[in-house]
Amino acid sequence: MPVARLARAVRQRVPAAAGVEGPTAGRSAAIGVLLPVHPVSLTSGLMGKIANRTLAGAGALVLAVALAGTASYAGGHPKVTTPTLTGWAALPAGTFVPGSEPSGALVTGDLHGFTAPFADQPVQGFSGIVDNHDGTFDVLSDNGYGNQANSADFLLRVHRLAPAFATNTVDVVGGVNLTDPNGKVPWPLTRADRVLTGADFDVESIVKAADGTFWIGDEFGPYLLHFDRGGRLLTAPIPLDGVVAPETAARTGVPATTGSSKGFEGLASSPGGRYVYGLLEGTVTGDTPGQLRLNEFDTRAQRYTGKRYRYRLESATNAIGDAIAVDRDRFLIIERDGGQGATAVFKRLYLADKRDRDRDGLLDKTLLVDLMNIANPKRLGGFGTTFTFPFQTIEDVVILDDTHLAVLNDNNFPFSSGRTAGRADDNEWITIQLPQPLHTDRRLLR
Ligand SMILES: [Ca+2]
Ligand SMILES: [Ca+2]
Ligand SMILES: [Ca+2]
Ligand SMILES: [Ca+2]
């Protein structure tokens, strides 16, 4: 989009964004940053710069942020021959929703210099993303601290974020907590006020429908959850036939058929939005190890169609981090190993085609980007000419335009430490230019 047109669009649209509920809404967003004591490292100067900028710049005009963010990827490189970094930004670990609620009372283990409980709700765990096409993105939290038992004081939330690549920063401009005020969940929730927590659902994937409602994929059911744009649950959680996570098994007595944290890690919308496709992170009991079910759901009929596809991991020990649609047949899928830092080896983006042209019963895979080998000729972010994304969990991919993607890590705050050993990971936000256009269905780019 030309800058002048974008500026007009942003001027028109940002006031609407300020209508988002929550303590960080609007221009007055003040971001609480709590810095841990950590050893001086190569990145500590940058960390300080980011933190200071985040504090000082919290009230910065959203317009400026949006322009800076878009210009840097749209400007990019004239032509690249290999996937190339065009933007790098980071939201510091230890960013909190100001004036929220204490969190993390049951967090144990290596907190990388942070002290729990935290005074507020951390802005972290980015597990799915939606482009609002106005310079802002809706980014889904994880369930909190990694399991049901330790996350009852973590409030599930869709954060509204705006990357500012000119300054390598990310601004938190709003967000909504996920709630069930109308009693759609038929079993007891953690909280009497029906604000949803990481002990109720483990949210991992998100699609925004044309009417502004959200479809969100969970891992405790696994359930599909439909929320209005204010984060209020619209219908009872929708189970998936034959697939039962241990958390639901414990509640219902129905035997589990999949492992913990192996539910809807990716959710993709068909062009036009009639269908959503939920990709499970783990193999269902009885299926071939390393093969994952992709399930077609009809959003109009509000039921699964029974159509199912299979995605084969390159290794049965890999996992998927996100799945989005490129067109009616192709998906873009993050596949990763469990390593971080020095042990991170396999972090990749694949195209997967459900036409199954070789008729082996599996989605046909093509490697699109090796996230451990991204060209960085401009040394963006202060990194070398080969950029790596060595995070344990990489869970957000979004198509910005036909040759540009954004990818974010889930930092599992305060646990993951992939960028700098011993230091809690920030939430990094990168943009990548592709050497070939994706030929994305235009309806998925607006
Ligand atoms: Ca996650
Ligand atoms: Ca995810
Ligand atoms: Ca999770
Ligand atoms: Ca195939």
| Largest sheet, strands/sense/barrel | 4 strands, antiparallel
Mean pLDDT over the full residue set: 87
Number of helices: 4
Based on CA atoms alone, the radius of gyration comes out at 20 Å
Mass-distribution shape: globular
Question: CATH topology, which one?
Answer: Neuraminidase
Topology record:
Layout: H1 3-17, E1 32-33, H2 44-56, H3 62-75, E2 84-91, E3 95-97, E4 121-122, E5 128-131, E6 137-140, E7 157-164, E8 169-177, E9 203-208, E10 214-218, E11 223-227, E12 238-239, H4 246-252, E13 264-269, E14 275-280, E15 291-298, E16 303-312, E17 319-325, E18 330-336, E19 347-353, E20 364-370, E21 374-375, E22 386-387, E23 393-401, E24 404-410, E25 427-433
Antiparallel strand pairs: 1-3, 2-25, 3-4, 5-6, 6-7, 7-8, 9-10, 10-11, 11-12, 13-14, 14-15, 15-16, 17-18, 18-19, 19-20, 21-22, 23-24, 24-25
Helix pairs in contact: 1-3
The chain binds calcium ion (CA) (4 copies).
Pfam families: Phytase-like (PF13449)
Protein name: Phytase-like domain-containing protein
InterPro entries: Phytase-like_dom
Features:
disordered N terminus, mainly beta, Phytase-like domain-containing protein, four-stranded antiparallel beta sheet, Neuraminidase, 11% helix, 446 residues, 4 helices, globular, binds calcium ion, Phytase-like_dom
Short description:
Residues 121-413 form the Phytase-like domain. The protein has 446 residues and is mostly beta strands.
